[in-house]
Specification:
This protein has about 130 residues and is α+β, with helices and mostly antiparallel strands. Helices cover about 25% and strands about 50% of the residues. The chain is built from 3 helices and 8 strands. The chain has helices at about 5-10, 30-40, 85-95, and strands at about 15-25, 45-50, 55-60, 65-70, 75-85, 100-105, 110-115, 120-125. The protein has an 8-stranded mixed beta sheet with strand order 2-3-4-1-5-8-7-6, covered by helices on one side. The radius of gyration is 15 Å and the shape is globular. The termini are far apart.
C-alpha cells in the first residue's frame, strides 16, 4: 500500500479503533463455514440496504465481515473504523479529501462510507 495513502488515512482519523475488515466472497455460506472453523461460531447474517443496492452480509464478533458477491475471487472490500466522536472524525475525513459515498445504519449505529484513493473506508459511531 502507498505510504502516502496510509498517512492520509491515519492523519484524518485520530482517536479511532479498527472495528472490522470486510471481505467480498463468492459463496457466503461456504466462507462462513471456513471462517467459523478457525474463529468459532458466531456469524450473524443480515441484509443491508445501501445506495448501490442491498447486500447480504455476515458479521463475526472477532471483527470479520463477509459480503456476498456474485462471482470472482475474494477481495478486501473495506475496513471499518470506530470513532468516539463521529462528527469530528467525519469533518476531518472530509477536510482530508475523502470522498463520501454512502451512509447507512446497522444495529442502530451510523456507518459513513468513504472512498480514499480507491480504498473503501467505513467510519462508524463507537456508541
Amino acid at each position: 500500500m502507498n505510504p502516502g495513502l496510509v498517512r492520509r488515512i491515519i492523519g484524518a482519523v485520530e482517536e479511532v479503533r479498527l472495528e472490522r475488515l470486510a471481505v467480498e466472497v463468492p459463496d457466503l455460506v461456504g466462507w462462513i463455514d471456513r471462517f467459523e472453523s478457525v474463529l468459532g461460531p458466531g456469524f450473524r447474517r443480515q441484509s443491508v440496504r445501501q445506495a448501490t443496492g442491498t447486500v447480504d452480509v455476515a458479521i463475526h464478533p472477532a471483527g470479520v465481515e463477509l459480503l456476498a458477491k456474485t462471482d470472482g475471487q475474494p477481495r478486501l472490500r473495506s475496513f471499518h473504523l470506530r470513532s468516539s466522536d463521529l462528527e469530528q472524525t467525519l469533518a476531518r475525513a472530509r477536510a482530508a479529501g475523502w470522498r463520501e459515498l454512502d451512509s447507512f445504519h446497522v444495529d442502530g449505529r451510523r456507518h459513513v462510507v468513504f472512498d480514499v484513493s480507491g480504498l473503501r473506508v467505513v467510519v462508524l459511531d463507537a456508541t
